[in-house]
Amino acid sequence: MKGQLVQLLFGISLLSLAACTKKEDQPTVVEGTVMNKFTNQPVAGIPIVVIKESSAGHFSGVNRDSLTVAYTNAAGTYSHSFNASSGNNYYIKMNNSQTLHDLSYGWYGAKATAGSNNRIDFSVTPYKIVTVNINTNKRGKSNISFDFFSTVDTDNFGGFIFSDTVSSKQMIVFTRTIKVLPNRDYTFRKYTFNQVRTSNGNHIFQDYTYTQQTRRILYNDTTVINIR
């Protein structure tokens, strides 16, 4: 009798395990193509990564772990097949941010539906290298700073170029290269201001002045920005 009970319990545990596995393992397929938006050509050799996003606890946000990677072929296509587990989110992300920018989904990636066949295409562009020549004067101010930005709908792109805080150094002459997204209007800004120490020892910034210029930077341009 005892042996029959053990066999019965063992059988129930196997059925429960099988049911749990069937519930949690969801075969998922993701396929797509990576295309250059401005040339309409496929892009080969691009790593496309599956990211699993899981909860890290009530106060810790989420964990994002790379599961697997597939590379686009000569036609720009890729394919992923994996088992998704319930309770997690899965994202498909282009993992080549040093040379290409994902215009479709940005740095976070596109969400895949677990247990389904997904079609996720990427529209990308190479970064364009722009030369920035600076030859200017602080005009008596202690600090100077340079940056740039572009706004297209909700897709903002920009960055810091250079700053100097040595008050005795008034002439600023240098050359930098920056990466931008092509076929956009960019605003290049120069700020001058004073850094002042207050009686309580804190530092404040005041006497701001700034100038700016806007340039459209195209895909095939050889672009040089001169700031004076």
From TrEMBL:
Annotated keywords: Signal
Residues making up the signal peptide according to the UniProt record: 1-18
Name listed for the protein in its UniProt record: Carboxypeptidase regulatory-like domain-containing protein
Organism, as annotated: Hymenobacter daecheongensis DSM 21074
Highest classification ranks of the organism: Bacteria, Pseudomonadati, Bacteroidota, Cytophagia, Cytophagales
